[in-house]
Specification:
The complex is a heterodimer of chains A (about 110) and B (about 110). Chain A has about 110 residues and is an all-beta fold. In chain A, about 0% of the residues lie in helices and about 50% in strands. In chain A, the strands form three sheets. In chain A, strands 2, 5, 6, 10, 11 and 12 form a six-stranded mixed beta sheet that branches. In chain A, strands 3-9-8-7 form a four-stranded antiparallel beta sheet, with no helix packed on it. The radius of gyration of chain B is 13 Å and the shape is globular. Classes of the chains: A mainly beta (about 110), B mainly beta (about 110). At the A-B interface, strand 5 and strand 6 of A face strand 4, strand 5, strand 9 and strand 10 of B.
Chain lengths: ~110, ~110
């Protein structure tokens, strides 16, 4: 079974600074997909960024980027120039080809003014 | 934009009642999912469906059933509600292609008294 671990239940960062959220996973699969989702206080889960395991290049979406270390089974999310609107729960997720997605427990991020 | 709509944002029911949670998506997605979200546990998969009238058990199906009579609608049923089913319930949908992320509804916060 696949497991996803987010070791930081809560984090905080000052506005405009950079923060990194950690995620590790356990799998014997070689082909899979990794995602970071954001859940603001309004509750709808929003996809932030995705990474295909077969791609060595780290994914980037504006201020959001990942550090994907396949051998270490690590998938961290870096948020640059943090904004107040980044305050949310962040979930790391692992998905195999069959759409079976597994989520971590989440990290609650607070951006302080 | 993908729209996943859950019928209720908040719901209060009594122990022993039969409870229906409804979810509708408008993007012709083949896959639909029901999760429950609890603090410190992340999202746990209850059931999913990859086609009309098809269903598969997730990690925590006990006490729940589902119905998918039409492609756009996926219902979660609590046969006899119990207090330990008080939780946030999230519906999601996706295309069947193995690399597609899931899109989520706003969630239903269900309280069983």
């Amino acid at each position: 079974a696949q497991t996803v671990t987010q070791s930081q239940p809560e984090m905080s960062v000052q506005e405009a600074e950079t923060v990194t959220l950690s995620c590790t996973y356990d799998t014997s699969e070689n082909n899979y997909y990794l995602f970071w989702y954001k859940q603001p206080p309004s509750r709808q889960m929003i996809l932030v960024i995705r990474q295909e395991a077969y791609k060595q290049q780290n994914a980037t979406e504006n201020r959001f980027s990942v550090n994907f270390q396949k051998a270490a089974k690590s998938f961290s999310l870096k948020i640059s120039d943090s904004q107040l609107g980044d305050t949310a729960m962040y979930f790391c997720a692992f998905m195999r080809n069959n759409n079976d997605m597994r989520f971590g427990a989440g990290t609650r991020l607070t951006v302080k003014p | 934009d993908v729209k996943v709509t859950q019928s209720s944002r908040y719901l209060v029911k009594r122990t022993g009642e039969k409870v229906f949670l409804e979810c509708v998506q408008d993007m012709d997605h083949e896959n639909m999912f029901w999760y429950r979200q609890d603090p410190g546990l992340g999202l746990r998969l209850i059931y999913f469906s990859y086609d009309v009238k098809m269903k598969e058990k997730g990690d925590i199906p006990e006490g729940y059933s589902v119905s998918r009579e039409k492609k756009e609608r996926f219902s979660l049923i609590l046969e006899s509600a119990s207090t330990n089913q008080t939780s946030m319930y999230l519906c999601a949908s996706s295309f069947v292609s193995g690399d597609q992320p899931q899109h989520f509804g706003d969630g239903t916060r269900l309280s069983i008294l």
